[in-house]
Amino acid sequence: MSSTLASQEDLKKHKVPLLWRDGCSALLIPLNICRKQNNYKPWECDHERHTYEKCQYDDYVRRMKEAAKQKAAAAEES
């Protein structure tokens, strides 16, 4: 199991919506806890937010590279 993937029990316990249960879900839980503790002040929880957004970006880049490889492979077959 990846360090950025939370267990189903943790996701249920912290009421993470289904749409947010992705590869970075373990980083979203502490971010949401911090946000609630600080009354959703936008200047708080910068470290947690940055870590979560970096994970989301890295996942996006990985998926785009994979899609480009699949597209190139499909073009070679044609």
What does this structure look like?
This protein is mostly helical. It has one domain. It has 3 helices and no strands. The chain has helices spanning 8-13, 25-37, 46-77. This is NADH dehydrogenase [ubiquinone] 1 beta subcomplex subunit 7.
Low-confidence stretches: none
The gyration radius over C-alpha positions equals: 16 Å
How many domains? 1
Shape: elongated
Topology overview:
Elements (H helix, E strand, L loop, with lengths): L7 H6 L11 H13 L8 H32 L1
Helix pairs in contact: 2-3
Key traits:
78 residues, mainly alpha, 3 helices, 0% strand
What is the compact description of this entry?
Helices cover 65% and strands 0% of the residues. With 78 residues, the chain is mostly helical. α2 runs antiparallel to α3 (46-77).
